[in-house]
Specification:
This protein has 194 residues and is an alpha/beta fold. It has six helices and seven strands. The model has no long low-confidence stretch (mean pLDDT 92).
Length: 194
């Protein structure tokens, strides 16, 4: 397991080289807390919300999967898109607890942006962890992204509005299966390998 400080990095590629199987950002409140509850993973990355706000997480994590599972390189664009959307949702709606319904009106967009800026300055929120894990076999790659927010009911209807649910729609389009556990705090995405 590699330990790193997210604020000291300009790119996370350097924390996930082969043969590294896990990396923990010491910028999280409790970097190793709860790891026993994370599904067993061939690759694990835990970052603080502050690190996820500042750095690309999806690109280096997707590349690290491809380095370890060459068959995943053929689906790298779908993997990257889904991971990026899942991390974005974990940051905004999970750890920063932003209500996506705010974006349904022009005035709401402004309030959403102001609230996001305010919350992105709050260490109690920005030190919350986001955990990514990946496993693969000859048929598929499975990726989970989990936040420490309040969770949500994935079966509940989303409020009306153009911006709401866009990320989940993109994730569903890129994956062969999508599910939620941990009271909606963990998204589980499966990608079929050709």
């Amino acid at each position: 397991m590699v330990l790193f400080v997210g604020e000291d990095h300009e790119d996370l590629t350097s924390v996930l080289p082969l043969p590294v199987v896990g990396a923990l950002d010491l910028g999280c409140d409790t970097p190793a807390a709860g790891l026993a509850a994370v599904p067993a993973a061939a690759l694990l990355l835990r970052v603080s919300t502050a690190t996820a706000l500042r750095l690309d997480i999806a690109g280096p994590f997707t590349a690290a999967i491809g380095d370890r599972c060459p068959a995943a390189r053929g689906i790298a664009s779908g993997l990257h898109l889904a991971i990026q959307e899942a991390v974005g949702n974990a940051v905004m709606h999970g750890n920063l607890e932003l209500d996506g319904a705010l974006r349904a009106t022009p005035g709401g967009w402004r309030l959403f942006a102001e609230t996001m800026h305010e919350r992105s300055q709050d260490p109690a929120l920005t030190r919350r962890a986001i955990t990514l894990s990946a496993n693969w076999d000859v048929q598929s790659v499975e990726v989970t992204v989990e936040d420490l927010g309040p969770g949500f009911d994935p079966a509940a209807p989303h409020p009306a509005g153009i911006a709401n649910g866009r990320g989940l729609g993109l994730i569903h389009g890129a994956c062969s299966a999508v599910g939620f556990t941990a009271q909606g705090r963990r998204i589980e995405m499966r990608f079929a390998l050709a």
